[in-house]
Design brief:
Largest sheet: 7 strands, parallel
Number of domains: 3
GO biological process, one term: D-galacturonate catabolic process
Family: Belongs to the UxaA family.
Radius of gyration: 24 Å
Pfam families: GD_AH_C (PF20629), GD_AH_second (PF04295), SAF (PF08666)
InterPro entries: GD_AH_C, GD_AH_second, SAF, SAF_UxaA/GarD, UxaA_altronate/galactarate_dh
Number of strands: 23
Strand content: 15-25%
Number of helices: 13
GO molecular function: hydrolase activity; lyase activity
Length: about 500
């Protein structure tokens, strides 16, 4: 049988292929015999582990044994429990690596330079509703203009529906407005049509206050109640916006202009061995070249948060990271939910047993670079380097908040597979080669190659692939037309 022993301190190994009871293998100089059938991606005990003793993976505890575990036994949810608790106090113990080598070699990509200096990886026209009441209207506008302007010199016309914009109060309404305003201002949008109903809380006059300064050639507004035929009026305005957006052409831009989101979903036992480390290697290289990356999914930092905290560039960033973690824990407890009710059924089927195990794999997407800033939900990136962003683990909400933060591309690792897409191109990274082959219509890159090929070769090819997407190559989710947004909600609906 084939195993991988991730860290010298680990008392479990991960199976690279299924095994049956009685099979024996040598690993780290010792023999281990399976006491039962165990699936690939799952854990096998390398030594006897006493009840109450910690299970160690990645060199860190991922929980404790609830019974005595024999060497060769399957280690999963039936014999392991989390060590996680509620809100904790933390001490800053800096462990900041500043010497990550840059391997840029003058790498550039052809992007769209915007008047504000930012760079887009796409030059699209977006239609954004202020309120859900006009969702169908903007779909009809998009359908009409896509046919009429099929040959336009842009990268496409897309609408983004959502269920909010009215009957919201306070923080929820501001959250909706801010996410939508960030999308209006996104560099991948060459031009934007904002469509309102006319009587909603988030009516256009109020929404304009959140957008801030805008170019009337780039952003146009339509109030459906004020025109006789809002579909035809929308089509006419889109024609004007296409004329403006078509004036932008790709030009060579340094990779330092990239802001890349880091996301995982449907993780399996290989996520922390292949896909997430691969994304981490990319993130470190991009940051060394002057670029930025953004890590979110705060609940999937629980159990690994001190690794990120101690990489903070200073006490202020450390304090913001503590607030990020404990604030999200408070969100859970304020709704009478435990903070460790994770992983999902799909995660467990793939071999992940506890939230600590999931988090120790998840946070590897951030590589080893210093944490330079911590952003609130709906915040936007202003610091070069690795940023932490408040947001839940939910795939659609997390991808939306990454796009709204200014990410022009999102790297999405998965061991189970998902076709999801959002406002920014989502590169799907398969954590195992079987998934990459099985769902070729969903997956963009096979990180399972790290198990059989030199790491440097795979990382180089992945870096070049991301730059190809930044240069205009379409992802599988783009080809399939998956473009949705979802906005976090925490309050009362009237």
């Amino acid at each position: 049988m084939k195993l991988i022993h991730i860290h010298d301190r680990d008392n479990v190994a991960v199976l690279l292929e299924p095994i049956v009871k009685g099979q024996t293998a040598e690993i780290s100089g010792q023999m281990v015999t399976a006491t039962e059938d165990i699936d690939k991606g799952h854990k096998i005990a390398l030594t006897a582990i006493a009840k109450g003793e910690n299970i160690i993976k990645y060199g860190f505890p991922i929980g404790h044994a609830t019974v005595d575990i024999a060497a060769g036994q399957w280690v999963h949810t039936h014999v392991i429990a989390t060590n996680l608790g509620d809100i904790l106090e933390y001490q800053y113990q800096p462990d900041v690596k500043q010497d990550i080598p840059a391997v840029c070699a003058g790498k550039t990509f052809p992007g769209y330079r915007r008047p504000d200096g930012r760079v887009g990886t796409r030059n699209e026209v977006w239609i954004i509703p202020t309120v859900s009441c006009v969702n169908r209207n903007i779909q009809l506008i998009a359908k009409a203009v896509t046919a009429r302007y099929a040959d336009a010199a842009i990268d496409g016309i897309y609408e983004f529906t959502h269920p909010y914009g009215c009957s919201q109060m306070g923080e929820d309404q501001l959250t909706t407005q801010t996410i939508l305003a960030n999308l209006v201002n996104h560099p991948n949008a060459g031009a934007v049509l904002v469509v309102g109903l006319g009587c909603e809380n988030n009516h256009i006059a109020e929404f304009q206050k959140i957008i801030g300064k805008w170019d009337p050639e780039r952003v146009k507004f339509l109030v459906a109640q004020e025109v006789e035929d809002e579909i035809e009026a929308g089509v006419e305005l889109i024609g004007e916006l296409i004329t403006y957006a078509s004036s932008f052409k790709r030009e060579e831009c340094p990779v330092a202009e990239l802001v890349v989101g880091l996301k995982c979903g449907g993780s399996d036992g290989f996520s922390g061995i292949t896909g997430n480390p691969l994304v981490g290697y990319f993130s470190d290289r991009l940051i060394a070249c002057g670029g930025s990356s953004v890590l979110t999914e705060v609940p999937e930092m629980f159990g690994a948060e001190t690794i990120l905290m101690n990489r903070a560039t200073g006490q202020d960033v450390f304090d913001k990271t503590v607030d990020l973690i404990n604030g999200f824990k408070h969100y859970f407890t304020s709704h009478n939910q435990v903070v460790y009710d994770n992983p999902s059924p799909g995660n467990k089927k793939g071999g992940i047993s506890t939230l600590e195990e999931k988090s120790l794999g998840c946070t590897q997407k951030g590589g080893v670079s210093p944490v330079v800033d911590v952003l609130p939900y709906a915040g936007t990136v202003s610091q070069k380097g690795l940023n932490l962003l408040s947001g839940p683990g939910n795939d659609m909400v997390a991808c939306t908040v990454l796009a709204a933060a200014g990410c022009q591309i999102i790297l999405f690792t998965t061991g189970r597979g998902t076709p999801l897409g959002t406002a920014a191109p989502c590169i799907k990274v398969a954590t195992n080669s079987d998934l990459f082959a099985h769902k070729a219509n969903w997956m963009d890159f096979d990180a399972g190659r790290l198990l059989v090929e030199p790491r440097a070769k795979v990382v180089d090819e992945f870096f070049d692939y991301v730059l190809a997407v930044a240069s205009g190559q379409r992802t599988k989710s783009e080809e399939m037309g998956f473009r949705e947004i979802a906005i976090f909600k925490n309050g009362v609906t009237l």
